[in-house]
Amino acid sequence: MNHRIDRVASATGWLGIAGWLVLSAAIWVPQRAAAQDFSVSAPTMTAYVINAQNNPSLTLVRGRTYTFAINAPGHPFYIKTAQVTGTTSQYTSGVTNNGATSGTLSFAVPSNAPTPLFYQCAVHAVMTGTINIVDPPPVPVGTPWSAAVLGLLLSCIGWLVGRSRIRASIPDGPMG
């Protein structure tokens, strides 16, 4: 058995694995940033309680989807373009289940969503808050792409070195 082949194959195998891990991290890690979910209740007629705060201002990012888990019987939760009661001024682009009193309202924030928007109870004028819509942060220059290039480079080097060394290391004649 040729131990040199085993060592070279093992070293290049680890180099290839290291390259693949760096490449995978560069591709998948930036996409893991999830949008925040919100818990919405209305224990009184004076405020929505969102994530334990009374009528907080919210900041949502264009291109992300947000989930509002609503438990507010008698207080229809709307996303609107104006702070008015009733069902007028609804913002509907990307919104599913606008006006819910229980269940889930989803908001896939479009890239052209205006700012500000508002959440508003259809019945009580004081149950309202501002929704600021912002652009996503820019992708850091060099961070993911340099890691991807490094990973690809390590994988290719591992493959090339392993291929050339193993080929050069195979002895002529029968193996014994």
Task: Describe it.
With 176 residues, the chain is α+β, with helices and mostly antiparallel strands. It has 2 domains: 3-30 and 139-169; 35-134, Cupredoxins -  blue copper proteins (Immunoglobulin-like, Sandwich). The chain has 2 helices and 10 strands. The protein has a 6-stranded mixed sheet, with no helix packed on it. The longest helix has 27 residues, at 143-169. Residues 28-32 have low confidence and may be disordered.
The general outline is elongated
Extract low-pLDDT stretches.
28-32
CATH A-level architecture of the largest domain: Sandwich
| Spatial extent as radius of gyration | 28 Å
Total of helices = 2
Overall helicity:
25-40%
What do we call the CATH homologous superfamily of the largest domain? Cupredoxins -  blue copper proteins
How would a crystallographer describe the biggest sheet? 6 strands, mixed
List the quaternary state of the chains: single chain
In round numbers, the mean pLDDT is 80
**How many domains make up the 3D coordinates?**
2
β-sheet strand percentage: 25-35%
Strand order of the largest sheet: 3-2-1-5-8-7
Short description:
This protein is of the alpha+beta class and 176 residues long. It is built from 2 helices and 10 strands. α1 (3-28) packs antiparallel against α2 (143-169).
